[in-house]
Amino acid sequence: MIRVILIGLSLFALTACETAKGAGKDIEKAGDAIQGAATDVQENI
Question: Which Pfam families match (predicted)?
Fold first, then answer.
């Protein structure tokens, strides 16, 4: 029973890491888009 719980916790931890990694990539892409838009505005001023 303990073995099953440990395997379950390990899988949950791996899933959480992948989710955080994916969210980090999404946030980074949004930041890049904002930075690009800000650069365009500065160039047009």
Answer: Entericidin
